[in-house]
Amino acid sequence: MKVFLLDSDILMDFFKKKSFAERLLAELYKKGKLATSILSVSELCSGWNKEQTKFFVPLLFDLVDIYFIDKKIAQLAGKFRFEFKKKGINLPVIDTLIASTAIQNKLTLVTRNIKDYPMKELKIYKIPEV
């Protein structure tokens, strides 16, 4: 079964009730399983107040599977940062960890921020025009 790793931007749009994000998640749900990184959970929580966090986090955990960081993911992310830094590209740690999570677990990343994920090994879901 295909698993779609939802990036923080997609989840933020969904929780802001943006209609394209609601349609996108419904479409992806029909095609496979929905998931996200524990790092995206952290990013979401950093933008929510206490009440929103108390309401939205359990909802998120019911909606998607959560992927955690392990040694292989951490090493792959470090390798990506090293390789891209040699090319003059400074990738954020969190983005390399999310990409490595998708690659290591054979997931398809769903994001609007394609420029943040230049890894050729990464499968990215092409989001239909909004």
TrEMBL record:
Cofactor(s) needed: Mg(2+)
UniProt xrefs under SUPFAM superfamilies: PIN domain-like
InterPro entries xrefs: PIN-like_dom_sf, PIN_dom, Type_II_TA_system_RNase
Domain PIN: residue ranges: 5-113
Gene3D superfamilies tied to this protein: 5'-nuclease (3.40.50.1010)
Domain of life: Bacteria
GO molecular function: hydrolase activity; metal ion binding; nuclease activity
PANTHER family, per database record: RIBONUCLEASE VAPC2 (PTHR33653)
Family: Belongs to the PINc/VapC protein family.
Protein name: PIN domain-containing protein
Species whose genome carries this gene: Candidatus Gottesmanbacteria bacterium RIFCSPHIGHO2_01_FULL_39_10
Highest classification ranks of the organism: Bacteria, Candidatus Gottesmaniibacteriota
